[in-house]
UniProtKB/TrEMBL annotation, chains A, B, C:
Keywords, ordered alphabetically: Ammonia transport, Cell membrane, Glycoprotein, Membrane, Transmembrane, Transmembrane helix, Transport
Pfam families linked: Ammonium_transp
GO cellular component, one term: plasma membrane
TM annotation in the entry: 23-44, 97-118, 163-185, 197-215, 235-254, 266-286, 319-339, 360-377, 410-428
Major location category of this protein: membrane
Name this polypeptide is given: Ammonium transporter AmtB-like domain-containing protein
Ammonium transporter AmtB-like domain ranges (all copies): 67-432
Organism the protein comes from: Gasterosteus aculeatus aculeatus
GO molecular function, one term: ammonium channel activity
GO BP field: ammonium homeostasis
InterPro entries assigned to the protein according to its UniProt record, in alphabetical order: Ammonium/urea_transptr, NH4_transpt_AmtB-like_dom, RhesusRHD
Subcellular location: Cell membrane
Length: 455, 455, 455
């Protein structure tokens, strides 16, 4: 016994020595690389540059208030809260992994948003006249969106991976995201304001595929159930509520000025409200003694926001939003009851936070709802100009019609699925990564192995 | 003993079976009803509709930034946070009722806002040309306001009612609210930007009357005192602070564009600051050894925001706002010290969260302050146009004068009181409801009987 | 033993009697004074006054949306959250001092903002035509900024001072702040949008000097280490994250409309992201077994926001912001590892929250970065008009050139340092104050001596 003990200690010391070197090294080197790349590539766009005054005069803009900052900054801050407090606290439910949930969420989001500004910049806002990426408030929102995809993936492997592994996951995740997003939005010309496909479907399948590659039988599902304590579940509710409340801002953050943002906020607000009721209904129906399960309340209540992401800016109509929310609350909660245990037992996919129920399924539904809503758009409902604005039937796509747009939306969903599953498998197969990760989880226990805990 | 035990278990099983059926049934049926009613009645208003581009041209609106969305959306999000995090966490102070506080708050708010959109829509934004309710960002704010009234009422009966009973309370509460609001704002033509009368006075007396109807001697006040633990009181401070910080947004959310919103925010900011100091003073003065009581800090510090609700948009003047805050901090804290125990002992009204001190008394004060401020308005202070804008002396009321407006404000307060007390008694008398509720509270203990608690 | 015990009890009773009288007395008297002073001096400015409609016509302002309220209110609310939730919860890490951290933070901020409106008003917005201070949304932001300085100082003496002493510290702190701010911004003509010098350097040295004057050997550093429990550290993360997320709003809240606010937000966003990575790196490198320390994650991750405060509105460039964040994460974390123990042991300065690492050093760096960035400004980068707008080269300073502006910035930093150190020593020497404070800390223990704790 003593021998085993000391061998373990040896391993531990070994591992800790590696961590001691590798985490600082990765952070310093990658951050230095960011500085260099930002120095070469990134500049302010014309709305954040002191030449704005002249730009205003040239473009006949009557007032400073028409700077895009004032259209989007409040939404940006709401999205920012969702990324750091929302996702961070949503994952604090584990009894002894609150530091890791909030802390690593913080770390990978802070790295991810820098890399996202570069990757998305190269694809979307490269100024060919001087070879620079011009950033503004919309770039910051998009970077946060991109990070969201990686944080969703983190939910699948919560407690099972080290900080360095998470940073690697984020590096590849952001890269894949930017390519996928470019293909969906620019090549396929699908619209996806709230990212049902681009963010949620991609992020969830990316995380689940990695988790599948890393299946560890020791870490059984009982950890999930026994893992929360009373107060950690209350902390998780902070995450849930900030995500729930600010979801209308997420879905409307980068939609068209005016009616676009307005409508997206209304639709999301309604879909989320409906989801809460059906989540409670199903949770009560399928738990013993009709009691409610906090896991469902924490997660499934958000499914409506995911599912309405693509169609939020379309004429989904208020009742349409309610229907989407209604269905997603049911499907997502049933997922927690039946699908998550099934996936673990038979498919060997562990899903710590149940992201398949919260992001994957609602994301796919969101893509389908978007395709249907787009395909059924008519000029009488949108108006001539409204139709062009809403679906961006301009430039190369000025001959597009709604029915074809529906097909393009469906194609976009397929791209997101392929990138998620394919990318996740590729990253999961990355050998060194896997080996490390397996070493990391000893005896299947989830604990704050990376934090000093005084107690 | 064993016999009693098994009889209790039987009752429990019986009750649980009912809950198991009734909560899901109510949620699913009511949500389905919402979908149908929304399908029949609710559409986007012209600022959230794709025809907005054409609307802009027709109405000569120069820029998208003048869409009401940009005037009100940041305030809406702050109000939204108050409803879900503010009210939810404020009630988490009980040792073993944090799930219920946050979770049921979430459920009834999510249902209430849908029903409020319909009820308020029928009264306020029905388009007679096509029989549809047209919603926009202001409707969402108003729905949140309406829900606030019901959440205040929840505070009186915290821990004593089941989810279904709360939903019933909310259904009737929202209905009464919409009628009362219509009478006060449109018939009586009182102004009530922050809802001192419409929201707080109504909501508090509605809740207290229900609590009075349901008096249970077993559930004595000691539960309140022994009910909190250290960390649950810290959680409650999250609720307090988010309510306190965002109250300026609540009081300014639906006031007039420009100076109206600006002034309402300033007045509320000042009133709340003054309240904090007098609350601390009185709490320290009346507690043994001069120690502060967290219950006072959590609740009475908010009284100034309630009391300044009606007059916030008027020329209350900065010192006026401070005076209102000063008085309310004192009155509200004294209420916790003397009035709450008195009400329980002699009037048989249990008030779990002390809503009489936080909402009822400050709400009435707010109504009176509003009446006085309105009655003393002059053209020299407001300007000719300013007076008309601030008090809406237009259309049917274009011959109104400030002194008469003061009378109308007072009349509005009476309407709120009548609806609160009358409505609460009626709902409380609703027999089946009462019986259920009495069964629900066994041995006067407050615990998470509706949630799965692993520990 | 019994004798000592009873003597202590006597002292305790004595002290408590004083507290019982002094805290209520101070709160009531000071608040009354505020009401009188507000009555004499404070009025709404033209954008919050009902004459705004006429003001609009006179000044040819086309729309209500150009009211400053819509430019700054969302930022104001974010700053407000930083002050009350951010600073309040950041200090909840101590096991048995969460009430004091959140509660006293609340109290002194509520008093401080009123006094700040007066003090800053006399210096900055006094209308000489009628002798009144005209307040609007920008005044509220500035009052919150001023309060921030005092809350930073509170961090140095956390748990060691009573509520009355904190109020005295705040009274003098706000007064000194207003004078210092006037000298730096108006006399020296330095720019300091995010307050690296005005707020952070001043506030931190003010607090540290007071702490130095009050050195108590009994209260040793071990209290800091043993003082946190698992959940209190999670509460502190709420504070950290809200500060981190909303820092872009703080640095951009009072900068120029348009590109100024836009650029300040981008720079702060980037600097903070870089800080997270280097903080994690250094924390892992210097802790045993490469584990992360929550104290570093909670505090040092914010240093980048402090250090970018002055230069955020200048053309710091995105990579410049990253470099500043990079360095500050390293310096701040090293400060926690080496400097705080050193200061306590050799300099007899106790720094409970490590404000020297979070505010003092990054503040000074921010001042220097600001001076360098200003000195290297050119017309080609800023444009003719942009240069004038950004640095306010108008009126008395219309002949200013960037290189001289750099000197003025450096001079501003010196003023902040002098006021901080000098003011702190003066207040700390204030005899009665010191004696009280020493009595207050018995046996060097930090506990909720001022709050009723039921448990």
């Amino acid at each position: 016994m003593g021998c085993v003990q000391s061998f373990r200690e040896l391993c531990d010391r070994q591992k800790n020595t590696n961590v001691r070197k590798s985490l600082p090294a990765v952070c310093i080197v990658w951050q230095t690389a960011m500085i260099i790349l930002f120095g070469v590539f990134i500049r302010y766009n014309e709305e954040a540059d002191p030449h704005w005054v002249e730009h205003r005069h040239t473009n006949n803009i009557s007032s400073d208030i028409e700077n895009d900052f004032y259209y989007r900054y409040p939404s940006f801050q709401d999205v920012h809260v969702m990324i750091f407090v929302g996702f961070g606290f949503l994952m604090t439910f584990l009894k002894r992994y609150s530091f890791g949930a909030v802390g690593f969420n913080f770390l990978i989001a802070a790295f991810g948003l820098q890399w996202a500004l570069l990757m998305q910049g190269w694809f979307h806002s490269l100024d060919y006249t001087d070879g620079k990426i011009k950033i503004g408030v919309e770039s910051m929102i998009n970077a946060d969106f991109c990070v969201a995809g990686c944080l969703i993936a983190y939910g699948a492997v919560l407690g099972k991976v080290s900080a360095v592994q998470l940073l690697v996951m984020t590096l590849f995740g952001v890269t894949l995201f930017a390519v996928e997003e470019y293909i969906i939005l620019n090549v396929v010309h699908a619209r996806d304001a709230g990212g049902s496909m681009v963010i949620h479907t991609f992020g969830a399948y990316y995380g689940l595929s990695i988790s599948w590659m890393l299946y560890r039988p020791n870490l059984d599902q009982s950890d999930r159930l026994h893992g929360s304590v009373y107060h950690s579940d209350v902390f998780a509710m902070i995450g849930t509520l900030f995500l729930w409340m600010f979801w209308p801002s997420l879905n409307s953050a980068i939609t068209d000025h005016g009616d676009g943002q307005h409508r997206a906020a209304i639709n999301t607000y309604l879909a989320l409200a409906a989801t809460v009721l059906t989540t409670v209904a199903i949770s009560s129906l399928f738990q013993k003694h009709g009691k409610l399960d906090m896991v469902h309340i924490q997660n499934s209540t958000l499914a409506g926001g995911v599912a309405v992401g693509t169609a939020a800016e379309f004429m989904l109509m208020p009742y349409g939003a309610l229907i989407v929310g209604f269905c997603c609350g049911i499907i997502s909660t049933l997922g927690y009851v039946y699908l998550t245990p099934f996936m673990e037992k038979y498919l060997k996919i562990q899903d710590m936070c149940g992201i398949h129920n919260l992001h994957a399924m609602p994301g796919v539904i969101g893509g389908i709802v978007g395709a249907i809503t787009a395909a059924s758009a008519t000029e009488s409902v949108y108006g001539v100009e409204g139709l062009i604005n809403t679906f961006d039937f301009e430039k190369d796509f000025k001959d597009m019609v709604p029915s074809r747009q529906g097909g393009h939306q469906a194609a976009g969903l397929c791209v997101a699925l392929c990138f998620g599953v394919g990318g996740g498998i590729a990253v999961g197969k990355f050998k060194k990564f896997t080996t490390d990760m397996i070493n990391h989880v000893e005896n299947g226990s989830i604990r704050e192995s990376c934090f000093n805990v005084y107690e």
